[in-house]
Specification:
The structure holds two protein chains of two kinds. By secondary structure, chain A is α+β, with helices and mostly antiparallel strands. Chain A has helices spanning 2-29, 33-62, 69-74, 81-86, 92-113, 122-142, 186-201, 203-215, 221-252, 262-287, 291-314, 328-350, 366-398, 406-426, 437-461, 466-497, 501-511, 513-538, 646-663, 683-686, and strands spanning 149-153, 156-160, 169-170, 402-404, 540-547, 551-554, 557-569, 574-585, 588-593, 596-600, 605-609, 611-614, 618-627, 634-643. Chain A folds into three domains: 2-356 and 364-379, no CATH class; 386-536 and 650-686, no CATH class; 538-646, Sandwich (Tick-borne Encephalitis virus Glycoprotein, domain 1). Chain B has one domain (30-147): Nucleic acid-binding proteins (OB fold (Dihydrolipoamide Acetyltransferase, E2P), Beta Barrel). Chain B has a five-stranded mixed barrel. Classes of the chains: A alpha+beta, B alpha+beta.
Chain lengths: 689, 160
């Protein structure tokens, strides 16, 4: 009964979505206010409908309705309730429904909040998001239905939505297959929803961009309306990426957090265009430049978001993330292609109207440096895209299938990331409109000098690796230049307003949240870069089998194996094998670690949980590889020392803080009066952004 | 004049990116191969960076934990997704590859931690090189167990 109800609600949701898009389009074309209103109400109905469908699915998941094939695939009796709820996005059908549910929620939020104010755009926003929503809901209704059940026809079990024949009865397996144990981790519980939140939020700025193109409004109104959406989208996407990295580091047991896996790259690509977009919209707001470019970036981001969802869900590329091959692959490709063609056609139609309002003059002006930043982001995107499609492309052109691994990405993106760091140090200090080597040099020489001194110090104390030194120089340059900028701003305000330093700093930052939030993010990027350099260049490892009381040594550490215990937890059907090792640093005992292996009976799969000793200097990361069960005498360990890697996580936290600082709601940017564009000259004028 | 300056700057960056991609691809290209293709190339494939995939034969898995040396054999499976689909999906193809003794096989050596997913009928995707001894030396080992994720019909079906 319930599965039929859930499916019925989904079907109604699909029809309502299609109606809403069509009514909005027809209504706005024929200036029928009542039809547009009807479209809006239909749109508002999609969210409760999808919520009910999702609620039904969650009810089925939590209550072990294994006759539903989706429930059978992703849950089992031994799973705790919270994991059964989050199994909603643990499989293909459920995650597509999750995507659609988020989009319905966001679109409703947009149409509820400022309907009167943004009336010129919103009907078109409904059209665009309804097309997207209809695609995803349609996918769930017609191809990947989470309410499909098992039916028994004379001893043969077939999956089907409704009874396949008159004599068929519903078949209920005793227990489900259970969620892949690798996914039963707190990080995995929130990583996919974060990524999806990020993915889906980018649909909103895209919908506004399309609305602006359709209505022919060529100013930056759409950017101002969606500024905060974009920031939150970027926040969630970034958070999703970081959480995914942390999960990989804690669970996958390969001593790293990023493997240039195609699916990781699929989530990384919209982040690249989104980041470029965040920067270049500022140029349009301040200077009225790069209007075409912003449109291209948001169109690309949207396409990459859908493409990314497709890559993670299609199995077209071999990857640890790959789910099953499924018929939805070609449909996704068709949808991406169609929306891309339609968007580009619209852009071409409006091309002349999006002319820049001024000209870019100086190569060192802030807008020019932002443009270079954008080019570098695009460069990294091209590197990634080429890497992902190289097997397909090479087979098409040369007949042999060629692929590229992590070394390709590291080598090709390394210099581009270095370029980005360099720009991160100098661009915030360059002036809008016009800037010269002299003015930039005056603003930057102290920071550059400090970074050089630090780097020379590192040569004598830490490393002589040239790539590492270049990296550390750039990182410290960013750090000093940005901190100097805080100091300079607060100092100026302190003198002008007669405040003490901290009050001045606080007010300065509070008045220019996007700017100073952005700077905090820059500093966070520098911190994260320290961690990346550490693991990329300085990671060392060793492995060996030792008897109880014996040790393995690596760098300053000595790892002494003590004992090992193995036991069953029948409640959750897991066998735990837990080893105990003593850790010594330079001969001094610093603690015990417990690397372990969890064996999941229902899916017959191991999960290797490392023991970690984390400090700012490095991370000692110990994996239990194997043990001799009979004698209990020996165990095999693999040990990594990952220098500086924790700066990665520290940077992630400050990054989160910076983003919240920049994006936290105060006054809606769209309600602010349009400021005069900044002319050539003053940095002072720009301090007011 | 002004426009030219930016055009040159942009073109310079663009050219640098293309150069980076081209040289990095060249330096790090790996050839996708099936077991059949690897055997067909024979000596010509020795020391070439190859990405090889095949079905793991469970009985052949041997692991020496003291040296972390893992050896196993894989059987040929088609490399083309469409072909796999035509033969009834990945799970079916892997199952048949393992059950068919006449399939081409190759021995694999891998040094490192035994992956959690390594078992009979898993798909192994490896990068490495073919040694002159005819053994494939894997540097990287990735495993996929399609039965985990695919819409599987419950096993109880048979007993009903």
């Amino acid at each position: 009964m319930l599965p039929e109800f859930g499916f019925g609600v989904l079907l109604v949701g699909f029809i309502v979505t299609v109606y809403s898009g069509f009514a909005a389009w027809y209504g706005v074309r024929n200036k029928s206010a009542s039809l547009v209103e009807s479209a809006r109400r239909a749109q508002l109905l999609t969210f409760p409908l999808l919520t009910i469908a999702a609620g039904v699915l969650i009810y089925l998941l939590v209550n072990n309705h294994f006759e539903v094939s989706f429930v059978y695939e992703v849950t089992s009796r031994s799973m705790p309730t919270y994991l059964k709820v989050t199994a909603w996005w643990g499989g293909q059908a459920g995650s597509l429904l999750f995507w659609a549910w988020l989009l319905a929620m966001f679109t409703s939020a947009v149409t509820v909040r400022k309907w009167e104010r943004d009336l010129e755009f919103l009907p078109w926003v409904i059209v665009v998001s309804s097309i997207t929503l209809a695609f995803f809901v349609g996918m769930v209704v017609f191809y990947e239905n989470p309410f499909t059940r098992f039916w028994d026809i004379g001893g043969q079990v077939v999956p089907s939505l409704f009874a396949p024949s008159a004599n068929a009865t519903v078949f209920t397996p005793d227990d489900g297959q259970g969620l892949n144990p690798l996914l039963r981790h707190p990080g995995m519980v929130i990583h996919p929803p974060m990524l999806y939140l990020g993915f889906v939020s980018f649909v909103i700025p895209y919908a506004f961009a399309m609305a602006a193109l359709i209505t022919g409004r060529s100013d930056d109104r759409w950017i101002r309306i969606t500024r905060r959406w974009t920031l939150w989208a970027w926040l969630f996407l970034s958070l999703g990426l970081v959480l995914g990295g942390r999960w990989a580091y804690d669970v996958l047991g390969w001593g790293g957090y990023w493997g240039w896996d195609p699916v990781e790259i699929a989530a990384f690509m919209p982040w690249l265009t989104g980041t470029a977009f965040l920067h270049s919209v500022m140029i349009q707001e301040k200077r009225g430049l790069l209007k075409h470019w912003n449109m291209i970036l948001i169109i690309l981001t949207y396409a990459l978001v859908v493409f990314g969802t497709f890559l993670t869900r299609s199995g077209v590329l071999s990857s640890v993330h790959a789910f099953a091959n499924s018929p939805i692959g070609p449909l996704f490709m068709a949808f991406v292609s169609l929306t891309l063609i339609a968007s580009v056609a619209l852009l071409i139609k409006r091309w002349p109207e999006l002319k820049s309002e001024t000209e870019m003059k100086s190569m060192l002006s802030r807008e020019a440096l932002f443009l270079f930043n954008n080019l570098l982001f695009m460069g990294i995107l091209i590197v990634c895209f080429w890497g992902v499609i190289s097997p397909l492309a090479s087979e098409l052109f040369t007949g042999t299938k060629i692929t590229v691994g992590p070394p390709y990405y590291e080598r090709a993106t390394g210099p581009l990331f270095a370029g980005l760091l360099f720009l991160m140090a100098i661009a915030p200090l360059s002036a809008w409109g016009h800037s010269t080597v002299q003015t930039l040099g005056r603003a930057l020489w102290k920071s550059a000098l400090a970074a050089s001194i630090l780097t020379v110090g590192l040569v004598f104390t830490y490393t002589k690796n040239i790539y590492a030194l270049i990296g550390f120089f750039l990182i410290s340059f960013v750090f000093f230049a940005t901190v100097h900028e805080f100091w300079r701003g607060a100092n100026a305000r302190m003198k002008a307003q007669d405040e003490n330093f901290f009050a001045a700093l606080g007010r300065l930052m509070g008045r220019n949240r996007r700017r100073y939030g952005g700077y905090i993010i820059h500093i966070s990027m520098a911190l994260m870069a320290i961690g990346i350099l550490g693991i990329e260049i300085f990671q060392i490892e060793t492995q060996g089998t030792v008897a109880s009381g014996e040790s393995l040594e690596l760098a300053d550490y000595r790892v002494e194996y003590r004992e090992l215990a193995s036991w069953d937890d029948f409640g959750s059907a897991v066998n735990y094998t837990r080893s105990v090792v003593d850790i010594y640093e330079n001969g001094i005992f610093i603690g015990q670690l417990y690397p372990r292996i969890d064996y999941y009976y229902d899916s017959q799969q191991n999960m290797t949980i490392p023991g970690q000793h984390a400090t700012l200097k490095d991370d000692l990361y110990i994996l239990l590889v194997d043990w001799q069960p009979v004698s209990n005498q020996g165990a095999t360990f693999k040990i990594y020392v990952n220098p500086l890697v924790n700066w990665m996580w520290i940077g992630s936290l400050t990054f989160l803080f910076g983003l919240m600082f920049a994006a936290w709601p105060d006054k809606d940017p769209a309600d602010e009066p349009v400021r005069k564009r900044v002319g050539a000259g003053g940095r002072q004028a720009s301090a007011a952004d | 004049m002004k426009v030219n300056k930016f055009f040159i700057g942009g073109a310079f960056i663009f050219a640098a990116i293309i150069l980076l991609i081209a040289t990095s691809t060249q330096a790090n290209a790996e050839y996708f191969m099936t077991v059949d293709e690897l055997n067909a190339e024979g000596a010509a494939a020795v020391n070439k960076s190859v990405r090889l995939s095949g079905a793991v034969l469970g009985d052949t898995i041997q692991y020496d934990a003291s040296t972390l040396t893992l050896t196993f054999e894989i059987a040929h499976v088609p490399g083309d997704n469409a072909e796999i689909e035509a033969q009834g999906g990945l799970a079916m193809v892997l199952h048949e590859a393992v059950s068919d003794p006449s399939r081409a096989r190759v021995k694999v050596v891998y040094e490192g931690v035994m992956p959690d997913l390594l078992r009979n009928e898993a798909q192994a995707i490896m990068t490495g090189t073919l040694g002159e001894d005819g053994v494939f030396h894997a540097e990287e080992l990735l495993l996929k167990c399609p039965t985990k994720y695919e819409e599987a019909v419950p096993e109880q079906a048979a007993s009903n």
